[in-house]
Task: structure prediction
Amino acid sequence: MAKTLGLHILADLYGVDADRIDRVEDIRDLLESAVKVANLTKISSHYYQFQPHGATGVVLLAESHISIHTWPEHGLATVDVYTCGDPTKAYRAMDYIINTLEPKRVDKQIHDRGIIDERRQSEELRSILVNSLT
Amino acid sequence: MAKTLGLHILADLYGVDADRIDRVEDIRDLLESAVKVANLTKISSHYYQFQPHGATGVVLLAESHISIHTWPEHGLATVDVYTCGDPTKAYRAMDYIINTLEPKRVDKQIHDRGIIDERRQSEELRSILVNSLT
Result:
């Protein structure tokens, strides 16, 4: 049986108020809150202020990562939420980010990441066991 | 005219030799080399060793980011290369990572990120200028 390890949501947010995505402090507040709201496990987080406009933020998670890049001059933020395990956490984090930034339009793509054939793995494991016993 | 700000390549690499993706030192070498090979501009990079297996790496770029998450026990690495500006740099970085890890199979997705209507922006700018003059 196939099993999916992770869920990756990519969202491009258009028509965002420039004031909400220009300063790295606001981007930090946004991502740190998203991690808490979705009950994700932060390893570390990293932020950068571009000049004259825009910011980047990345949170390394035990469950994978969240990233954001902003272009206030275009009213644009591109957001990735990629989590392993419970997929509802990815949706909850992304919903929080979108609801907070209030874009006029969202272009969203969703991908399964890492599709594992459990049957094949179990056959490989059995073959290793058989070989070790014979 | 529409203009795309960024190119995002998502690749799931299956059948990777576990020894190549288990240790964070190897993941660090891989990503730092990919940045150099593709002539990308690193802001900072961050790595984490999972126990008992696997690693995460993220490079913040002036052009956006590169990330990798590995599951050596499944022979799996999921890689994202997302760059703004010259799209050939994204392909060059991803090709380097794939060629180095030598997976048996790659599941690749490519997305344009941030599609800007330059005509509409220029009309909005003209409207602001007209309003400021009248």
Observations:
- The longest helix of chain B spans residues 118-133.
- The first strand of chain B starts at residue 2 and ends at 14.
- Strands of chain B lie at 2-14, 42-49, 55-61, 64-71, 76-84, 105-117.
- The mean pLDDT of chain B is 92.
